[in-house]
Amino acid sequence: MILQLAPSHECYNCYAMVKKQTARGVLASLMVLLLLPATGWAAQSASSSYQVNEVFFGAGGDLHDCSANYCAKTSAGETAIGNPTSPNYQARAGFNTDRTPYLQFIVNGTTTDIGVLNPGSTAKTTGSFSVKNYLSSGYSVITVSNPPKNGNHTLNALSTPTASSAGTEQFGINLVANTSPAAFGANPTQNPDSSFSFGAAASGYDTPNLYKYVPGDIIASSTKSSGETDYTISYIYNISATTPGGTYSFNDVLVATATF
Amino acid sequence: MLASCEKRVRTTKKQIVLPPLRRLLPSLAALILVAAVGAQLAPARADATAQVTSRKIALSTSSPAATNVTYAVTFTPATSLAHPDVILDFCANGPLIGDACTSTAGTNTPNFTGAAATGWTLSTIGSGRGVKLTTASVNFTAATPTTITITGVTNPSNTASFYGRILTYTTGGASTNTSVSPGSYTDYGGVALSTTQNINITSTVYESLVFCVFQTACGTAPALTLGDPTTGALSTASAYINANAKYTIATNAGSGIGVSMTGTTLCRPGGSCATGSSAYTINAIGSTAVALATGTEQFGMCADTTGATGSLAAVSPYLDSINACHGLSTGTYAGGSKFGFDDTASTGTASTAGDQVMASTGAIATYTGSLVFLGDIAPTTEAGLYSTALNLVASGTF
Question: pTM for this one?
């Protein structure tokens, strides 16, 4: 604490007394302030019976503007919004920010019978899922299932990105649009657009016409909070003349994990 | 004004000689100040809670209602703790510490009944929706990531998002935790998780077996001449072989195949070709493979399986142990390959089941091989046109 008083030469002792009295007053005030309960500094507005979790001082707004069919959360007068980040920290600036982390992971669960496989051609199908999350450092989606299996025989899963080859036993996937062995699949789509959504196919699963399948691999990810990204999985099945007969079942279990 | 000041100076001078207690007041005030500041700072550190960073809960499967699921809880503590207590609480409505928790274990949140974690003692909270973990062996180090792997969890049956709340405590500190009154926790953090449907794909592979015997192309029955290329006649001076019969085989029979042959040795009309011992036949070599013996009646065969997959191999007596029946050409023959032909009615080609020629132990990728026939006669062999029709059958075990 530095107290700066300006004593005159004419009445130095008088000012010295004023200085002492002022200093004592300030010290007393400080002590009173310091002895106040620390809870008085809490960020939220609260009393013993009520609390307000989200308050702001702006030009206007409402948390629940609703018509018969739609609702909106509005605010006006913000001077800065956004998602400033550093390597270790990030923040959400703005009036309409939610403090609840979020992960939405939707797999469009389907049961598909791709019919009879034969060595002369490639069987293919697609599946889809979507992910969005909030207040995270990103997410990853892994596929955990074993490759298609019939009794004791498991179709040969491609451990590295490989082109489809009819007549060679292969099982693989990717998450992009392909032209071989036929035009099928799709690139990840950002919803509403790439300004808000950042998910992408993972390395090894992001090259058109090359397929791979390793259980436990990350197949899609985002490195930060992201709006919805819609993914399409392209599956290929090839068998050889020696692939044992029977019904091959594949229950593709995907797991999304967000890091907060 | 000056007089007033002087008066105050005098007063000040009097203060200089005041009793010692008055002189101690500034020091006392300073002490109170220090104590007040300390009082503010010290509790602030003790009560400080910090958010665990880089936190996530990785599920081994996101399938709804899946049992025996592993939840790997990873986070970086802000505070070092020896033998901490940990609360992992799961709620359907939100991750915020202190908020009331909406949950039905097994429906919209996991069920931890029966869960376990190495190094930790678990007790369920909230009717099984979460767990309190205590330990006598694990320590947390600030800024060092830690993972608690919990096994035996049952996923919520709903396909929806749900939330986890992570709270750390000093030893014994979590004993009174509730969602709305979490007590004096040290670090905290929330995560969001989700269960979701799976993608199911089924496909069918038919059992397959492709087997044909041919001379030029599959589908055309071979018609072989065993003898001199010009006259078509056998000779006592030399043996003849014919290697023009081919076969192609492919199967996905995982337990392999067997190829059997039915028929008789070479015979001529007027005789009985039921067995090799009947008249008007050229003697079959029998059930033991032998090399040619010029001037002796011999009819035999070997099978070439060189290069086949699935451990396809010729079976005795059709197994040429000398050359594997490989590389033989139609015409006169003086080599050492061994041939056999068992046409007995009990176990040979004259039996109902026929005689096994080849067998494999596994599936066979498409393979084409040869069947090579040997003909030899003795000086006493009756003249005439000898022939036979042989039928080969392949059977797979799938």
Answer: 0.75
